[in-house]
Amino acid sequence: MLNKKNKSLWGERKPLKSSYDAVIVGGGLHGLATAYFLARDHGIKDVAIIEKNYIGFGGAGRNTAIVRANQRTQENVPLYNEALKLWPVLTKELNFNLMFNNCGNLNLMHSEAAMKAARMNVSTAQFLGVESHLLDAKQLKEMEPAINVSEDITYPIHGAMYHPPGGIVRHDAVVWGLAKGAAEYGAEIHQDTEVTAINTEKGRIASVDTTRGKINTSKVLVAAGGYSSAVINRMLGIRLPISALTIQAMVTQPIKPLFDHVISSGAYHVYCNQTLKGEIATGAHMDDWPNYTTQTTAHYIKHQAEALTQFLPCLKGLKFMRIWGGLADMTPDMAPIMDGNDQVEGFFMDCGWGYFGFKSCSSTGKYMAEFMATDEYPDILKPFTMRRFEQHRLMGETAALVNYSADN
Amino acid sequence: MALTITCPVCGKRDGYEFRYGGEDKGPRPDEEGLTPENWCDYVHMNDCVAGIQKEWWYHRDGCGVWFSTHRDTTTNLEISDSEVK
Ligand SMILES: Cc1cc2nc3c(=O)[nH]c(=O)nc-3n(C[C@H](O)[C@H](O)[C@H](O)COP(=O)(O)OP(=O)(O)OC[C@H]3O[C@@H](n4cnc5c(N)ncnc54)[C@H](O)[C@@H]3O)c2cc1C
Ligand SMILES: [Zn+2]
């Protein structure tokens, strides 16, 4: 058992009460952040976060921790920009070091068409007050000498999009910090507890069933990461425009400092950064078919090695140490669904975050909390309604530099 | 190997030869009386079952046939039609 000194940051396990003002399904980043802001901004502290496994079990503990605010569309950028600005604020407020490494991001471009697309992205960012620049290959080489800008690779590099405000935040610290912050306000975190049903009465949320008993409540938020669409369909019969795919990531053995930006490439389907420990942490693309396996594959290890050593040839011979998988719940327009009080009164959802739900969790938590507390849909969230699909108002993030969706 | 798929023409092959074609949602709805809601339902909405689902595949790097099959999304294993019933 745990030493007395190692008390849990988010308090001891309590008995489950028979009612709460709000129940949050899923102890990931979005659930924890929403609980934190419900208490901080709206004084709603009688909240239960119900987590089937342990907090951070899902994408929250598996992501590669990249943060940035250079998305493609005007609806998306402000939300991510606010999230970016919240890291230093939360570090202070939570009194917990989130280890924001503001190293900046480089997106490699491998054709003139990609350079033009990048120009669009950069303009959108600049228009919205987010720092973003276009670099040619020479400037890129000066910034990161390890990068191979020669013509002799499969996809020669024409330039890059440079986004100084982004970087890496320690994901586990965000989980622990938010859990600690929410618990200090009085929110209860119930791990090892599964929500098995969401019950409605006359079109309103009435209660949820859990493996530890029934909870009466009038408000439920499903923030179950990659499991959200399955949970929402199974428990409420609401189908979502989502495909849940396995996505993988891996790290190499540590090496001396080699590069100090997050570097990503749409053409090679790869992104990487050198961690503060010296490892190269790198993400691969995802399975093209929906599955909940979170299995890792030799296919992606090979892909990753081939892609990385094309534009960073000095990595040849380096060994991968660890590989893991998680889930990415992808919508057809590569943008999330944040909605509520529509299909069922008192039912809120925050999902479809694919492989970009880490960087956004703080601002999303803030606005989802506002939505749940006031029952008024915050303007910044309105474009993310699920109705956009039947209104044919899909967002233009699909045209961003990398995109995956099993349905396109 | 994460996935093998059995093509009705070529037999059991490496899953990377195929392209996933979405959940099998039955026939396309009639144009007559079609609303934005049921069109959206057909085009975009998924069941996202954690378990056995019926789905479309295309043998892209093979014979080019489209077919539907059953697969368990929690194991990536194909399920024969007789097992489903
Ligand atoms: C390999 C990988 C790399 C990624 N890289 C990045 C990145 O660099 N940058 C970025 O911004 N994003 C990244 N992401 C995406 C990001 O991690 C997710 O979008 C985000 O974590 C999802 O939100 P969440 O944390 O709230 O959900 P999760 O952490 O997935 O939490 C959901 C929780 O719900 C629980 N749950 C499920 N069903 C039930 C139930 N019935 N009852 C109770 N609890 C339940 C699960 O146990 C889980 O803990 C990555 C994801 C992966 C997998
Ligand atoms: Zn075939």
Question: What is the gist of this entry?
Answer:
With 408 residues, chain A is α/β, with parallel strands linked by helices. Helix content of chain A is 26%, strand content 24%.
Describe the structure.
The complex is a heterodimer of chains A (408) and B (85). Chain A is α/β, with parallel strands linked by helices. Helices cover 26% and strands 24% of the residues of chain A. In chain A, α1 crosses α8 and α2 crosses α8. Chain A is globular. In chain B, 20% of the residues are buried. At the A-B interface, α6 of A face β3 and α1 of B.
- How many domains of chain A? The number is 2
* Class derived from helix and strand content of chain A: alpha/beta
Give the CATH topology of chain B: Folate-binding fold
**Rg from Cα of chain A:** 21 Å
CATH topology of the largest domain in chain A: FAD/NAD(P)-binding domain
Tell me about the largest β-sheet of chain B. Answer: 4 strands, antiparallel
Whole-number mean pLDDT of chain A: 95
Helicity of chain B, in percent? 10-25%
Going by CATH, the architecture of the largest domain in chain A would be 3-Layer(bba) Sandwich
Rounded mean pLDDT score of chain B: 94
Oligomer: heterodimer
Shape of chain B: globular
- What is the number of beta strands of chain B? 6
Distance between the termini of chain A: 50 Å
Helix proportion of chain A: 25-40%
The DSSP helix count of chain A reads 8
Supply the number of helical segments of chain B: 2
